[in-house]
């Protein structure tokens, strides 16, 4: 998973810093890779999306909402004309 949300990346960084302080330098690279892979696996199992994906969906929703509002206005106008 290449697109890790910023909060998750921060968590990974903090865990790696803590692990570096507790583990000899010779083991830290392997440990860092293993921790990062494990955390990425956990995150990929969660139903999280990137900020970019969320922003795209918010834009789609806003556009759809505007169209619905426009259609409701047209329907209201037609109902008035037909006296329904």
UniProtKB/TrEMBL annotation:
UniProt keywords, alphabetically: Cytoplasm, Ubiquinone biosynthesis
Source domain of life: Bacteria
Pfam families: BMFP (PF04380)
Gene Ontology cellular component terms for the protein in this record: cytosol
Function statement: Required for efficient ubiquinone (coenzyme Q) biosynthesis. UbiK is probably an accessory factor of Ubi enzymes and facilitates ubiquinone biosynthesis by acting as an assembly factor, a targeting factor, or both.
Family per record: Belongs to the UbiK family.
One GO process term, biological-process aspect: ubiquinone biosynthetic process
UniProt KW Cytoplasm keyword: yes
Subcellular location: Cytoplasm
UniProt keyword Cytoplasm present: yes
UniProt pathway annotation: Cofactor biosynthesis; ubiquinone biosynthesis
The protein, known as: Ubiquinone biosynthesis accessory factor UbiK
Transmembrane segments: none
């Amino acid at each position: 998973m290449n697109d890790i949300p910023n909060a998750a990346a921060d968590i990974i960084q903090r865990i790696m810093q803590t692990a570096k302080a507790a583990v000899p330098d010779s083991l830290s690279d392997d440990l860092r890779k293993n921790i990062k892979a494990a955390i990425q696996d956990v995150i990929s199992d969660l139903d999280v999306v990137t900020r970019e994906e969320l922003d795209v969906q918010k834009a789609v929703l806003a556009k759809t909402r505007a169209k619905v509002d426009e259609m409701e206005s047209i329907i209201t106008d037609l109902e008035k004309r037909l006296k329904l």
